[in-house]
Amino acid sequence: MRSLPTILFAISLLLGVGARADERANEPNQVHKAHAIAMHGEPEYGPDFTHFDYLNPDAPKGGFVRLSSSGTFDSFNRYIPKGAAVGIGYQTLMLDGEDEAFTQYGLIAESVEWPEDRSWVIFNLRPEARWHDGVPITADDVIYSLATLREKGLPQFRFYYSSVASVEKEGPRRVKFTFSGAVNRELPLIVGQLPIMPKHYWEAEGRDFSKTTLEPPLTSGPYRISDFEAGRFIELERVKDFWGEDLPVNRGRNNFDRMRIDFYRDETVVREALKAGDIDVFSEYSAKDWALSYNVPAVRDGWLIKEKFEDHSSGGMQAYFMNTRRAKFQDWRVRRAMAYAYDFKWVNKNLYYGQYEQPNSYFYGTELAASGLPTGEELDVLERFRGRVPEEVFTTPYFMPDTDGSGWSRANLKTAFKLLADAGWEVRDLQLVHVETGEPLRIEILTAQKSLERVILPYIRNLKRLGIDARLTVVDTSQYINRLREFDFDLTISSSSQSLSPGNEQREFWGSAAADQPDSRNLAGIKDPVVDELIDIVIAAPDRESLVARTRALDRVLLWGHYTVPNLAAPFDRYVFWNMFGQPEKTPVRGTSTSFWWVDPVKAEALRTRRQPPS
Prior knowledge:
alpha+beta; D-Maltodextrin-Binding Protein, domain 2; Dipeptide-binding Protein, domain 3; 29% helix
């Protein structure tokens, strides 16, 4: 995933960093060895740390918890572009610290080694690490995992790990990755996220990693699948002799003995199941239901808890993504007109109960978000592309069209009409058609969530006022996944959840190479050489300060490309749960997780008998 040397040289000249690169080349390439590795700076937790501050190392183990999931499933192989897959994921070499921008600590790997220029990385595996069948995890499993995921896995794996030039076994538990292309500080951490799979299991007779399967796969983590019924439920049990139980990264994590996940086709049924006591905890995404669906005695009496947990991890936003692979969206003026037809103020007040903000950045709510006009290093980066990006990048802070909150701002619709006219569209017989071809402008908004219908229909109403033949299509989960994989849609609502330390994954979100790769996350189909070059510049950032400036430059260019209609953002997660849980005192920057919680025996008994008020 690295640029060719010639491209790197060009970028270094553009940024004026050629001299610094020469200076680094003359420095000794010092080799580091540690328990953890940070993208920039030093890890927050030292080599002798005993647990993360956001976990309770004394959390009791035990209890049975009932969860829910939407849709269905027909496979346990989550790593291939086939089927509706669920199940337990494979453990990785390293584990992210949840209250740092991007730092990884040893999980399967006991230690990590890297040179100053990060041109390679070595992982030393823990001797105690083993699969659930007792077979040790070895360097052969690591090598097999990389090769298999790049050859047969989801397309993003090929992008994500494309800069790995070679992988070598230096011992039974020692493996070295060598990288190609330009300097990229992120690559050792990217490889640290590699899911490690059991070679001996997948190479056994009759198994094919490229196919869906309902055979619970062999894993190495704290849980295993104990029972299931395809499409209906999965039960997990905690592995009593889990080899990693007492690792510092795991102390206070994975506290439930058993979990059951029931699958529902309708979120309304999920909420009723929660209130009936058939589910113990639910992550509520609907503002309407958060406001109106829990006016029940259990909530008023304190047995069923509604709580918001801060989450500043993703930045990002939820938005309508326009598929620029379709000819109708290849003109930026059409895309911008789509934004002028959307009235966030009306939607937020009437449908979201004032709970959200309208984002104006792909990194909304973080220091990475572009704001105001570019200055400093951000401006220096953007100057190299003057004439290749809209002039507004330099002259106008990006904005979403403001409205009067009426639901159909006449002024905004008038602006949208002008943009569409400039793009070659006109109204004939109350229908918007192309001036030259006479073809009507038809737009399908695709979703798998029937609950979004009430949110999308007001937008469709405004599009129809422009003469656009707009319609909503609600499909089942499997069909929705398959249509997204093939980019068979005009518009769809999706979230662009972002890392606090952007890097290689940006190619998967916005890069030209991902635009035509089935199942990629470049939903908008962006193919812009400037964006590709900016992504390379972000990846090559030498320190946090430069990373922030360069990400803001990328953000600004994406915004002025008008690829999405930003819908909403919220720096919190909403949970509704029965009062039976204990939770850590500290919530990390990336938000809470039920894997941090535990069943409080006193609360659980009180809830079971309802003999005393909850505390």
